[in-house]
Amino acid sequence: MKSKLLAFVCLTAAMVLLPAVVSVAFPSGEPVDNPKKGILIASFGSSMPEGEAAINAVADAVKAAYPGVETRVSYTSRIIMRKLAREQNRTVDEPAVALAKMAYEGFTDVVVLSTHIIPGEEYDDLASVVDGFREIGASAPKAGFRFIGLSSPLLSSARDFERLAGVITDTYAEQAKGGAVIFVGHGTHHFADAAYSALQMALWRRSPNFFVGTIEGLPSYDDVLARLKASKVKNIWLAPAMLVAGDHAHNDLAGDEPDSWKSTLGQAGYKVTPVLSGLGQNKAVQNLLLDKLREAWDGAKQ
Ligand code: CO
């Protein structure tokens, strides 16, 4: 339902903008004299400055890698966007609106960089928006883009699990010597939740001291606790396997409430050190995202 709604919104937005676009876009069937390239970062979003820091870090890395290409940021979470409007009087566009504006402004080649960790519901919705714009570009070239690409999420192929596991074990090599590092992802009812278990296997192939848990999916908190008990570790580092260290990281993981992971693991006898830094702040993860972005550009006409 939601993805259909989003596709409808993006089609409607493009139709509304159509008359204005005609004057600035390229003539049908002719090569583009002045290609205008753009990058749209699509992130779940965050309403916390600490969370936004990770999104900005990714945006800065993209801008540094593509200095001549305009880079914009959009959020996919309606809840976050409403919260920002209500509490901070700020507007961040959702991808459909951001893309409609870019079409209006005459961008010809656009790649959407997904910063989602797994190909779950949020990514499916984003893909349907991109498909909508691709359809517009194919059937009404004056109203759409000549090329639109979408990068795959961080964990979407067998190679991805190995690469992210390598980055994680390198980043926390010191901590893993004296204890366990637990990476906690969001988790979902979507089938793509299986990606977290696949990441766990990729980590265990490298070291027994890395664990993956999720807040809303599998492996669960209980799964992680059972495996911790089976190991001999007492010191634990608790890090978000999310792009940002936002609300979930600060409250569900590291909060002082009695039901946070930090509190319950503390009660279970572990010494817990939260790591309040999102994957987006990790340079090596930024490079993985830049690789995904490069792959997404490969389909573009030069
Ligand atoms: Co959530």
Question: How would you characterize this protein structure?
Answer:
The protein contains 12 helices and 8 strands. The chain is α/β, with parallel strands linked by helices and 302 residues long. The chain has 2 domains: 2-154 and 283-301, 3-Layer(aba) Sandwich (Rossmann fold); 158-242 and 244-277, Rossmann fold. The chain has a 4-stranded parallel beta sheet, sandwiched between helices. Strand 5 (180-185), helix 8 and strand 6 (210-214) form a beta-alpha-beta unit. The longest helix is centred in the first third of the chain and has 23 residues, at 2-24. The radius of gyration is 21 Å and the shape is elongated. The chain starts with a helix and ends in a 5-residue tail after the last helix. The structure holds cobalt (II) ion.
Layout of helices and strands:
Elements: H1 2-24, E1 37-43, H2 49-65, E2 70-75, H3 78-88, H4 95-104, E3 109-114, H5 121-139, E4 147-150, H6 158-171, H7 173-178, E5 180-185, H8 194-204, E6 210-214, H9 221-230, E7 235-240, H10 247-253, H11 261-267, E8 271-274, H12 283-297
Parallel strand pairs: 1-2, 1-3, 3-4, 5-6, 5-7, 7-8
Helix pairs in contact: 1-4, 1-5, 2-12, 4-5, 6-8
Bound molecules: cobalt (II) ion.
